[in-house]
Fold:
Amino acid sequence: MAPAAPRSGDAIFASVERVNAELFTLTYGAIVRQLLTDLEEVEEVNKQLDQMGYNIGIRLIDEFLAKSNVSRCVDFKETAEVIAKVGFKMFLGVTASVTNWDADGTCCSIVLEDNPLVDFVELPDTCQGLYYCNILSGVIRGSLEMVSMKTEVTWIRDMLRGDDAYELQVKLLKQVPEEYPYKDDE
Amino acid sequence: MQFFGGSEISPSPPVPTTTGNNAHMMYVFNRNGVCLLYREWNRPLHTLNPQQDHKLMFGLLFSLKSLTAKMDPTSADKGNLGVPQLPGQGCSFHSFRTNTYKLSFMETPSGIKIILVTHPRTGDLREPLKYIYNLYVEYVAKNPLYTPGTSIRCELFNTALDQYVRSIA
Structure:
């Protein structure tokens, strides 16, 4: 029996349970607002959002693999394409594009034209250092770590700070293959 | 005169801990070798204590995966024996059968390994294992009370699993 082919982002997005987009956006906004009140420092909030994203990412990867049926990607280029076309579509309903590959193929940019997290949001002057969508960088980092890739994800362009699109830079630091966890003498 | 129902002719079998099932047992491991779940429905013979049993099972699969990948006649890339591969890469075995049982195996790229031991006439269990992976996602990965990397203690997951495994022919 041939294994099932991977499903496209649209097909999965249509079949999963969805929540109201405004509810999602406003809930996220409330979380960021509360973090700002609790932590006060913008840098701390950025770090906390990244950590929250990481915790989400380590669980999200299983849902992604189960629903999308993709097999292991051959190289990092394929990984980035899958994240942009299937991953973002499946979870956020938006399609991203991958650009700006560097010479070794270990660093690329994922560009989002449309970002549901930032509808209705404006950053006040007191929060200029805030990466509002930093949870997304944590999610990508967490998920990739569970598939043996250590990466670094940073924001290059952010529309809330005046740029024209959202651009995330994903850099592959190394592949960490599975090791036999038990010592031989036990 | 008192009659003890059924006990002279054929003693009733001991009541199993979970309701009878045609599968023998099931293991779920994560990428670090931690046994997340062990379910037993029908296992008359226990030879090792649970820790040794889990280690043996994990070690067996780790070696089998490595061996089957190295022996692959269709693959061009031959690494050294013993060099670990990324889960899901290259060829991956999915079951082996003996005269008394069949062991079916599935590994996801995230390192979750699902092993199901059934009777030898079971057909191909790849689709059921995928379904069990979906159950894992719904009841365990999405469960806020579950810490990833620890053993699974979720009644709903156990019930859903028992029900599903019972329905596999």
User: Anything to note?
Assistant: Strands of chain B lie at 23-29, 35-40, 95-97, 102-107, 113-118. The first strand of chain B starts at residue 23 and ends at 29. The domain at 25-43+90-169 of chain B is CATH 3.30.450.70 (Beta-Lactamase). DSSP finds three helices and five strands in chain B.
